[in-house]
Every structure is written in C-alpha cells, then in structure tokens.
Amino acid sequence: MKTVYINSVCSISSQKTFDNSEFLDEIIYHEDNLIPVVNPNYKDYISPSESRRMAKGVKMGVAASKIALKDANLDTVDAIITGTGMGCLRDSEKFLGALIDNDEQFLTPTSFIQSTHNTVGGQIALNLQCKGYNFTYVHSSISFESTVLDAKLMLENNEANTILIGGVDEIGDYTAKLHQIINHIKAEKTSTSELLNSKTEGAVFSEGANFFVLSNEKQTSSYAEIIAISTYNTLGNSKISDLAKSFLDENNLDIDAIDMVVLGNNGDVTFDGFYNELSSGLFKNTQQVYYKHLCGEFMTASSFGVWLASKILKTQKLPEIVKLNNLKDSNFKTILLYNQYRGENHSFTLLRKC
C-alpha cells in the first residue's frame, strides 16, 4: 500500500492561523465562554455576490480549501471529503425560527436547503468544478477522523492521487444557549490562558475550519506522513493508557519512539481526567502539547490539533503557548494525537516527519 502525505494545510480559527507564512507568532487571548474565529478577507477567495448567500461555516470551508489548494500548488483534486459535527447551524436555526414565527406557513426553502451538512463539500466542489468523489461525515466529535480514515484508505489503495479533506463547524446562538443550559459550555467567562486551571464543568466553545490536501505522492511542500488513525466510541472497562499502548503496539512503536503527544484538554473538570491519565502516566517523560485554549472546543476541533502537529513537524518549531511541559524543543519525528469529547469518541492519530 502507498504512503499517505499531508501536502498542505490551512486553518481558520480563533487565532490568525490562515496565513501559512506565520505559525502562532501573535497570540490572541480571549476571555469568554464562546469565542469567534479570526476571519480572513473573504473577498480574496469568494466573490461578494456568492459570499452574501453563504453561511459562516460555508465561507470558512470554501476559503480554507482554496488556501490549502494554493499551498499544495493545485487547482483541483480527485476527491473532496469533509467532516462536520453540527453542520450549518445558523441556517438550521434560521429555518426553524421562521417555521415557528410563520405558523408553519409560507416558508421559503432557502435556509433549509443551505442548512444540510454536505453544503460545505458541495460548495467547494462547485467552486473547483470537481466532479469526483464527494462525501461528508457527520460522526459527532470523530467526524474529522472519519474523513482522514476514508482518504487514507483511498490513497493507500491508489483510488485517488490527491484528496482535499477538512473539518468545519460553526457557532449557532440558540444551540449554544442549549449547550450552556446542560453544562456543555461553561456558565462563566473563562480566560483561555487559564483554561487548564478551570475547576468547572463544560468547555469554552468556538468554531473553525481546518483543511488539508492529502496525497500518495510526496512533494517539497509536504508537512507530514499519516501513519495510522483509530477511533473508539467508548472505552468499556479499558483504561485510556492501555488503549494508547495497544495502539502503539499495533504500529510497532514503543513509548520512547513518540517525540510528542498532542492532547485535547478543554478545561472541563469532569472529562479532562482522560488526558491527565496519559500526561501523568504513560507519557510523563514525553513532550506534551495542548491546543484547545487557542481554538476552543467544537465537534471537529481535533482537526486543529492535526494542523498544529503538521506545522510542528514541518517547521520543527514548538511555540511556547502550546507547551504542557518543557522536555524537548526540537528534533520532532513522530507525534501522537489523542482526543475525546465528554468521555466518548476517543481517537488516536499518528503522524511522522516526512
């Protein structure tokens, strides 16, 4: 089977990450429980007439895809695979609001049509005139991991040469209020710089779009090689450290072979224990990194973690802001990423320097 490479990246997040010439050079500190993205100039990527009709998530996705393609020196790809946990929430809320306000009569279908989860992938395909395989995964907090797994299988079996993948989610005001009521979002405003010191339930939520061009051919622009990815809905009676060791064993690696572990700590006192188990146990002598204090929590936030790990492998630069400990500053060859959301949908992703 062929090797799978990450040939380009783009991240639109609550930091200025869409500019690939920089790498967390200027950090934006937020103090809230809902943090917005730092928007690029969408006019550079989408015509104003199109942009007016697009939901926030669609605009983020289209812009991020075009930046990723430019980074890979491509005009189009063989396939497009997107992942989203909640889809185009704002249009969904708009349609449901109109349904109630108009007593279920005289409704225009526009918001409903644009609220479907595959709107982002479809709009990207229209922009690129890509008529190839186009699929959207809606697998809650492993939606992005599902895109990686699908693309990896296609490339390994030579079913495509270049595939655009991405994870995108947006904030919806009404949905955010519901998440606050059930303590999925923190009730209080929290400084992102103090996120790990939080002793309350819930996370700081955000939105974002992270896109990558994967290929079975290595280029000068390549960032990393994807070695393996595995997802687990629930742990059962297993401990996360046992599962991590089993995952490494399956890939013929021991703990010492991992140069860095990227963890998805989000400040939720109820569920950060999964990460703490790894950081204080199996990987206590490994360089540890976290990222959700920068991008916030959302269903495809793990895609930001892949962006971060890819940039570290290519630049061999480790920004101070993401360090959980201080054991290693350079010579990163193999990185393990671990993410979970509210005790479910655990995932391990293994990346290696090209």
From TrEMBL:
Source organism, top-level taxon: Bacteria
Annotated Gene Ontology cellular component terms: cytosol
Gene3D superfamilies: 3.40.47.10
GO process annotations (BP): fatty acid biosynthetic process
GO molecular function, one term: 3-oxoacyl-[acyl-carrier-protein] synthase activity
Keywords, ordered alphabetically: Transferase
InterPro entries named among the record's database cross-references: Beta-ketoacyl_synthase, Ketoacyl_synth_N, Thiolase-like
Segments forming domain Beta-ketoacyl synthase-like N-terminal: 45-218
Name of the featured protein: 3-oxoacyl-(Acyl-carrier-protein) synthase
